[in-house]
Amino acid sequence: MDLSIKMFSDIPSVVRHHWNAGNINWPMGIYITLVHVVGLVGVAKLVECSKETLMWAFLLWPISGFGITVGVHRLWSHRSYSASFPVRFFLMLCNSIANQGSIYHWARDHRVHHKYSETDADPHNAMRGFFFAHMGWLYLKKHPEVIRAGKELDFSDLHEDPVVMFQKKLDPWFALYMCFVFPAQIAVRFWGESFWPAFFVAGGLRYMIVLHFTWFVNSAAHLYGDHPYDVVSYPSENTYVSFFAVGEGWHNWHHKYPFDYAASEFGISSQFNPSKLFIDILATVGLVWGRKRGTAAWDMGRARRERDREAGVPLPKPTPRPWEAISAIKQE
Ligand SMILES: [Zn+2]
Ligand SMILES: [Zn+2]
User: Which residues form the Fatty acid desaturase domain (predicted)?
Assistant: First the structure.
């Protein structure tokens, strides 16, 4: 198991190694640390907030979550459906409240993540352990392979979308405003909340929590769960991550069929997926269209697997997880 005492006791030597190698990304590292300080101040401010502000902070979880899942992930990174201008603009606003870097940069890193999963070119390579895949990668300079891979892929579709380029031009100031200040302004304007408690709770604390929910997709959903669609890949079906990441933890399916707008095999009645529900509602009223599914491809894959099984061909062996690989080396 990767989340071990050893993982934590190794932290000083890992930090020393990266310090000596000059690998630390100081601006991002300081920013992410500050985010956690602001989030913890938010915990202390919870008692000063009205119930309307607490409800607003709670609602901002799916609102900013959809900016990631429905917006930058399923629409802009994977083009799994097409969306009208009003929907793209709305999703860009939601994405700015989530404040995880511009749509352009997020989609670029994400396409690289899919093409080079679990290699040096993967920005949050889960082979380097839970903490690195979760948030450690933000504390370090990018591996040269990640930079090389980012230059090699095509992002012309992102350049052609004025909504994406508008947000990129205002980055990071617009996202910082939408993440921290805008939620507080709404609370002050509509139910007379004091500015700072709303800033720290609906802004800072909610932001810190949703960041971790997203990061769990890269850490937990790349390390723990089932692999019904592709046994050799790391990404897994993780129910808990799906709950926190508003439907984004069905990750074995997603890495097998990244063009699928549902990012899962089944409908919302059997797999928690409010992001799919939201896209379906938008499609019903004609605001999005061209929703792609991976189910036909999986029907063929499953039939092939069935034929192999009948012919006595064994399923490929799952790749060892990092902790298994380490213990295998020790045993040799
Ligand atoms: Zn992934
Ligand atoms: Zn993806």
Answer: 56-258
